[in-house]
Amino acid sequence: MKLNTSVLVLTLAAVLAGCNEDNKSQRTNTVGWYLDHRDDLAAALTTCGDNPGELGKTPNCINANEARNKITIQEMEDALK
User: How far is it, in rounded angstroms, from Cα 3 to Cα 57?
Assistant: First the structure.
């Protein structure tokens, strides 16, 4: 019985560690980073737009949308000059 409990605890720890690694592999990009990397911004906006229910509130989607907003505002200001 003690062996089964130990195996269960170790298995659970391994599963949880694997989930943590998945989260770490997804780097969070800042708004400024997206402003400097327009191709990645376009890709992130496409990905976020394809699945807003699951991804819409993630840091990368929020930052990508904010970068898009800043670009739009800058383009509007430039057009008025």
Answer: 42
